[in-house]
């Protein structure tokens, strides 16, 4: 039986890791597939740099379309990143299966890519696009298919989790920890994609489609990052029995679907509160199995390459199968995707942490409580820091409230004469 020939696009951290995993475990992979999987051609931007990494073992060029159009190549592994839509569609139109780690591409153009793949009878594997080496895609698309997924929540970006862990454990400000993350290689020189929540939103888009059988809708995800998170809120959260994590959350509620990325307070004894450093973790709650958790390294050469090679193995196992018998890309048949409404953030309901900096005067608490009550917001608990220079911080934890009511209350609180700064609002999640 002939070997499966792979064209590798990109030889960066993950591409090099994929090359090494396939080379090191070639016999073990053969035992699983009864076929050899070999990278026969590589396309990169910098050919000399690529040769310095792996030597002159196979042809390397800077022409990705040469590989995409080569009839001898069976599978294209796309690890370039960025907008490779035209390249991906060209490979699909040539009947080539695709393996990609490009979550940005799939979140924004996945509907078009999966439609084209179905039309041409090819598979698009994307396990490496979410949480690196953690097999969350396979779990949701295959292992949990007996369940009606109720919600999922996860720490899906290692850079931001490292920053928040260091801010809490070492009481350091955001910018100082960000610089350290860049020095250690956890953060890019331009960290916007990570710290502003865009990377997590891409992953939330994919996970919500897998959970609820809806089209990919990145443009409807609510996104907040961690760049404006204050050190004092991390410390106050800890005093109150919570930790702050950047969460990707998607929920099925009575009037639609929530998809949101933002910092959130979660109880200190919750599993996700104890995911530290650059690790990733996702909890998926199904109506039959309850909650299951998936934890591991969310980035890096070998963990991500592990998922890339796992997709290659799956494709090889199904290589001669009828496309109609293959698992749908999003786990649901393409003609039965739901048109469930994605709720705007103003319509979600959760609990809130509100921090006010106020003048230490009589009647302050009563006036704030009146504003909250007039917006149908019930106070769960309250905490006040000792007064410094006749000014103090007051923290309110609310019961579940609708976000548009919270927005109105914040606007009215900020207009009170004794309030000294903007109100800090963070959402709270119990995840049970």
CATH class of the largest domain: Alpha Beta
CATH topology of the largest domain: Rossmann fold
Mean pLDDT: 95
Number of helices: 15
CATH superfamily of the largest domain, by name, is NAD(P)-binding Rossmann-like Domain
- Report the β-strand fraction as a percent range: 15-25%
Low-confidence stretches: none
Q: Into which percent range does the helicity of residues fall?
A: 25-40%
Query: Strand count, sense and closure of the main sheet?
Result: 11 strands, mixed
Total domain count: 3
Tell me the Rg in angstroms: 24 Å
Give the tally of β-strands: 17
What does this structure look like?
This protein has 432 residues and is α/β, with parallel strands linked by helices. It contains 15 helices and 17 strands. The protein has helices at residues 13-24, 26-33, 47-54, 64-68, 85-93, 103-120, 136-143, 158-170, 174-184, 192-195, 198-212, 231-239, 301-317, 364-374, 403-414; strands at residues 4-9, 37-43, 60-61, 75-78, 97-100, 124-125, 149-155, 222-223, 242-253, 256-267, 279-286, 290-297, 349-359, 379-384, 391-398, 401-402, 424-428. The strands form two sheets. Strands 7, 8, 9, 10, 11, 12, 13, 14, 15, 16 and 17 form an eleven-stranded mixed sheet that branches. The chain has a six-stranded parallel sheet with strand order 3-2-1-4-5-6, sandwiched between helices. Helix 1 (13-24) packs across helix 13, helix 8 (158-170) packs across helix 9 (174-184) and helix 14 (364-374) runs antiparallel to helix 15. The protein is elongated and about 85 Å long.
């Amino acid at each position: 039986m002939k070997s499966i020939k792979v064209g590798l696009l990109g030889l960066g951290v993950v591409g090099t890791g994929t090359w090494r995993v396939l080379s090191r475990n070639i016999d073990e992979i053969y035992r699983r597939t009864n076929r050899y999987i070999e990278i026969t051609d590589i396309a990169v931007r910098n050919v000399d740099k690529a040769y310095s990494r792996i030597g002159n073992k196979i042809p390397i060029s800077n022409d990705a379309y040469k590989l995409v159009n080569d009839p001898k190549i069976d599978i294209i592994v796309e690890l370039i990143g960025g907008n490779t839509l035209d390249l991906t569609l060209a490979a699909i139109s040539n009947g080539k299966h695709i393996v990609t780690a490009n979550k940005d591409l799939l979140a924004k153009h996945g509907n078009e890519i999966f439609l084209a793949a179905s039309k041409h009878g090819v598979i698009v594997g994307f396990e490496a696009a979410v949480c690196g080496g953690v097999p969350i895609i396979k779990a949701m698309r295959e292992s949990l298919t007996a369940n009606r997924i109720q919600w999922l929540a996860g720490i899906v970006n290692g850079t931001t989790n490292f920053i928040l862990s260091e801010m809490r454990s070492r009481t350091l400000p955001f910018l100082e920890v960000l610089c350290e993350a860049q020095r250690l290689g956890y953060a890019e020189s331009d960290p916007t994609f990570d710290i502003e929540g865009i990377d997590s939103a891409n992953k939330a888009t994919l996970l919500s489609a897998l959970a609820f059988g809806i089209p990919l809708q990145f443009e409807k995800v609510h996104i907040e990052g961690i760049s404006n998170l204050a050190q004092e809120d991390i410390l106050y959260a800890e005093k109150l029995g919570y930790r702050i994590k950047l969460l990707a959350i998607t929920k099925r509620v009575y009037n639609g679907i929530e998809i949101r990325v933002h910092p959130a307070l979660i109880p200190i004894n919750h599993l996700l509160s104890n995911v530290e450093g650059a690790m990733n973790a996702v909890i998926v709650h199904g109506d039959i199995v309850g909650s299951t958790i998936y934890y591991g390294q969310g980035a890096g050469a070998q963990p991500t390459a592990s998922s890339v090679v796992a997709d290659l193995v799956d494709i090889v196992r199904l290589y001669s199968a009828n496309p109609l018998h293959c698992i749908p890309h999003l786990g649901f048949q393409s003609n039965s995707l739901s048109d469930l409404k994605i709720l705007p953030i103003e319509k979600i309901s959760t609990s809130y942490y509100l921090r006010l900096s106020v003048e230490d005067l009589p009647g302050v608490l009563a006036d704030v409580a009146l504003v909250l009550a007039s917006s149908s917001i019930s106070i769960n608990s309250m905490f006040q820091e000792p007064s410094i220079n006749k000014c103090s911080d007051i923290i309110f934890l609310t019961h579940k409230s609708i976000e548009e009511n919270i927005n109105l209350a914040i606007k009215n609180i900020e207009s009170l004469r004794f309030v000294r700064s903007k109100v800090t609002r963070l959402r709270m999640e119990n995840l049970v």
